[in-house]
């Protein structure tokens, strides 16, 4: 956006600058079909952006993507070494099979590099809009303290419009960034409770991430093993919501709340499966074990 908050020239130049910059921001961010951005269309209700949370998720996402890139680069180096040895030994069938593997890994590395560059581009655009919004907000406050004149009132109206437009663009970029967060495959590994878990006990675990829900029931068997009606669920991560986990014990028609906890998802952006142990009770007498694969 080429908004200039240090001075006000003509109305026409301001409108032209905003129109050009606004269209460029939206054209670069068009990563989903329009229906996916119903809440982000112009004139719709816009929520308040969360720059600190976006920064936290961006850093975790970039770290995870770079770890993926390093792992595949190491695999490529290993395959390339074997490729050279095989070429010298002239085992043609094995040589061509290795060649296919190398090409496949190279394509995946290029996709990862593009993914990382797109995430960085989105976050850079987000930071620009954030700084513009902060500058417009500060100037709006300064103008509101100055003597009320026709010029100051016009400036306040213009600054208010700029703040709204920057806020709208930040929300739009947040939605575009969420497209690149991938998926969380969450596996149920069971409850841990030592003496608290007895054969015949039945529990219900309810996991929620925003509007996504997973409700599953399990039973403690006589050999202390556990059976659950579902073992895995795919969640689509977002920037603002945390995992909310609720565990209840089922006793006939009655239910007894064991505990409710929230879990931040920023640590799940890792190429390796994450073993998660969550304290359900305050004293940790009952824990929930999950495995998260990104």
TrEMBL record:
InterPro entries: FAM65_N, RIPOR3. It comes from the Eukaryota. Pfam families: PL48. Residues 1-294 form the FAM65 N-terminal domain. Belongs to the RIPOR family. PANTHER family: PROTEIN KINASE PKN/PRK1, EFFECTOR, RIPOR FAMILY MEMBER 3. This is RIPR3 protein. It comes from Quiscalus mexicanus.
